[in-house]
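Agenda item 2: heme C complex prediction
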Amino acid sequence: MKRLLVSGSRASCLLIIALLIMAPVRAQDDAASIFKSKCVVCHGADGSGNTKMGMQLKAADLRSDDVQKLTDEQLTDVVTNGKNGKMPAWGEILKPEQIKGLIVYVRSLASKNKTK
Ligand code: HEC
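Presented output:
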C-alpha cells in the first residue's frame, strides 16, 4: 500500500515536470506569433525597427544594448504601459503571461543577432 502511494506521487511528480518542460515551449510559440501580429509592424521581424512605421516612430532596436540592459521588470512595464505615447500599451490587450513570453522572445532576438 505504501509502495503504491509512493509510486503514485512519483508519477504525478513526473507529470508536473513534463508540464513544466513543455510549458515554456508553448509560451515561446505563442510569443512568436503574438510578436508577428502585434509588434513586427514597428519593430520588424528581427527586432531592428527597420520598418516604415518603425522608422517614422523611431521604434527601438530591440536587439540593442539600450533595450537589452533593461531588466525584465522594466521591459514588462514598457510593454504593459507603453512609452512616450509612441510605443503602444499592451496591458489591456495581452495577458500578463503573454507579455512575459514576449520579453523572453525579445531576449532571444538579441542572442540571435550576436551569433551572426
Ligand atoms: C506602433 C508601433 C509599435 C508597435 C506596434 C510596438 N512598438 Fe515597441 N516601441 C515603439 C516605439 C516608437 C518605441 C520607442 C519608444 C521610445 O523610446 O520613445 C518602442 C519601444 C519598445 C521597447 C523598448 C523600450 C525601452 O524602454 O527602450 C520594447 C521592449 C518594445 N517596444 C516592445 C514591443 C513589443 C513586445 C511589441 C508588441 C507587443 C511592440 N513593442 C509593439 C513602437 C511600437
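Discussion summary: Residues 2-43 form the longest helix (42 residues).
Owner for follow-up: CH.
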